[in-house]
Structures are given as C-alpha cells and as structure tokens.
Amino acid sequence: MRTPRQILDNEPMGRLQIVAITICVLLNALDGFDVLSISFASPGIAAEWGIDRGVLGIVLSMELIGMALGSIVIGPYADRYGRRPTILLCLVMMAAGMFLAAYAGSVTVLSVYRFVTGIGIGGMLAATNAMTAEYANARFRNLAVIVMATGYPVGVIIGGSIASALLASYDWRSVFLFGAGATALFFPIVWFLLPESIEYLSERRPPGALARINRTLERMGHGPLAALPEATPAASGIKLLISGRLMKVTTLLTVAYFAHIMTFYFILKWIPKLVADMGFHPAEAGGVLVWANVGGATGSIVLGLLTQKFSVSGLLVGALLGAAVTVTLFGQGQADLTQLALVAGLAGMFTNSAIVAMYATFAESFPTELRASGTGLVIGIGRGGAALGPIVAGFMFEAHFSLAAVAFTMACGSIIAALAIMLLRTQR
C-alpha cells in the first residue's frame, strides 16, 4: 500500500496542490509587507516623534524579536496541532498588531504592537514553509519552497508601491491600516481554500485523520486509502533537533541564518531612512526599497530555476558571497537616486536569493515530523540576528561610523554564513 507521501511525491502536481502552494506564496508576500511596513513608515515616525537613529533601530527590530519568539514557540505548535490552525492563528495576531500600530501614541506602545505582529509572522513562516514542502511532489519540492519564499519580496514590491502612493497623500499610519486590511482578507481564503497537510495528518493522526486525508485525495483526483500506513515512532521535538545526528545540521543552519539575516535586514530596514537622510522625499526613499525587492524577486526566480540543474547548497554559497559584495558596494555611496536604486536592486537580488535558498535547505534537512519545529527553531534563533542587525547599525551610526564602515561590517554576516554552509556540505 502506498503512503500519502509516496502518492504526492510520485504523481504530477494537481490543481489543489498548486492552489495550496499559491496561497502559501501569497501568505509569505503578506509577511514581507507586514515586516517592512515599519521601514516605509520610519521616516514619518522619526520626523513626527523626533527620535534619533539609535532609538529608531530598536523600533525597526521589534517585530523581528517577535518573529524569533513566534518561530520557536509556534513552530512546534504547527507540528503538534496542524499547519492550517497555526496559519489562521497567526493571521489574527498579524492583523490585530498592524491595526493597533496605526493608533499607537508613543514609541513604547508602537514597539509592543510591532512585537505582537512579529510573533504572528514568525509562526506563519514556519507553518507555510512546512505546508509548501508537504504539498509539492518530489520533483518540484525545492522549486516550490523557493517560489513560496519569493513571495516575500513580491509582497514588498506590491505593498511597497501602494505604501509609497499612500505616503504621498497621507501620513505613516496609512501604511499600517492598509496592511491590517490586507492581512484580514486572507483569513477566509485560508479557511475555505487551504486544507490541512496530508503528510501532517498521516504522521500525527489527529481524530478523523483518515477521513480528512481521503477527502483531500479525492479533491486531487486520487483514490481513497483503505487504512493509514503503519505508524512511525513519534519524534521528540526540539530535544531531537539539538542532539544526535541532527545536532550538527541544526547548529550550522542556525549559524548561517543568524549571520546572513543580519546583513539582509540591515539593507532592507535602513534603506528608506538612509535615502531620506540624503535629501530625498520619503516616497522616493520607499521607491528605492521597492527596487531592492524587485531585485530580490528576480534573483529568487532565477535561483529557483537553477535548482533544477544545480544543488541548492552550492547556489546558496554563491548567493551569500554575492550578498557580501553588493552590500559593501551600497555602502560606498551613489551619485543619484537611479544609482541608489540600481545598487539596492543588486543587493536585494543576492541577499534575498540566499534567504530563499536557505528555506529550501531547511525543508530538505528536517524530517516531516520535525519540519516545522526545525524550521521554527532555526528561524527563531536566527531572528536574533535579524533584530541585532538594525540595532547594531543604528548605534554605529550614532557613534559616527561612516555608511561604508557600517555596510562592510554588516556584509561580514553573509561571509560567515557562506562558511557555515560550506561546512554543512562537508558534513553531508
């Protein structure tokens, strides 16, 4: 008797699988905008409340700290209770946090709301990464995860373009209100169109698992299962990830993600403020960030296609080294807005390509019963680097370090990550 995983692995991708993966792509696009909404709003916040770069760096990092907690805490929840209920819970937290941020009256209150939003985003990343890998067949699994991750910059491009238009007529609060509305719209979409992962149901076996699996298989055009396959021993969650054969994998992936995410969020979080400080309008500064994400989306698509011919880990090392070079180049300064957008686009292309390649690496490195937990643990600890990057950069600016010095320091994170991935390849 074939298992559900064998059916999905070996059969062509059906309409339901494509719809499920597309929803995960759109959810990640939503994550991208919700994370960077504070970046689009930051020039207006700094001007209205008169806060310096050091304090602004902390505000820019609050949802990243929340994402770390959300990934670690909610990732195991997705492995235990299901991908679908986790996604719905995260949507509620994200919509509420975005809506309340628009009515924050102080830096402290805004930071709390951004932290809550981040918890939801962190859990969403772990759940959608697992859901995508489990709905794809074996041939297209890496490509599906990379396309899912490509949703992140696409969300910033589309949402950022809307945000820039809003900022031309309204204040920074309009960015959060738009994000709250867009997030709320996804709740009914997930509720009605995204069934639970078949692989999760087969592994965890909640009440009614066989009937739910057969309903989904029927929608895919496959025959029903007479019975569930023989159960495998339950994994021991986080403990197993940090011991035994998975310990080295978890450690190296965490180091790589932590180091590179510092570089990634330095460039994405600080672009609008740095460009605005050069004398450009906040809407123009937001446009440069949009171009960084155009580069990110382009690079991710190219990388996804290349995975059909080359190993993900090799492509990841190349993207990390390219990220280090282009972020350093951004720090050298450019003559006009066009050059700023071009260099930001190149930096976005390599930094984001490396991120999506990491997500594909996570999906193939952890077994089904630990996929969301492993992804959540790596992302959760790694998000410490995401939060640290903007904060370190902010205080370096306050200490009067030049943009070139700050950019080079931040670019070193990608070099460290490349070394960790090369070591991982030797371990395998």
Q: Care to give the gist of this entry?
A:
The protein is mostly helical.
Global structural class: mainly alpha
Relative helix content: over 70%
Major β-sheet annotation: none
**Count of individual domains:** 1
In whole angstroms, the N-to-C terminal distance is 31 Å
Low-pLDDT windows of residues: none
Total number of beta strands: 0
Q: How large a portion of the residues is in β-strands, by DSSP E?
A: under 5%
The H-and-E topology, N to C, reads as HHHHHHHHHHHHHHHH
Shape: globular
If helices are DSSP runs of H or I spanning 4 or more residues, what is the number of helices?
Answer: 16
The CATH homologous superfamily corresponds to MFS general substrate transporter like domains
The CATH topology:
Growth Hormone, Chain: A
- Radius of gyration, Cα only, in angstroms? 21 Å
Known CATH architecture: Up-down Bundle
Task: Give the overall average pLDDT.
Answer: 88
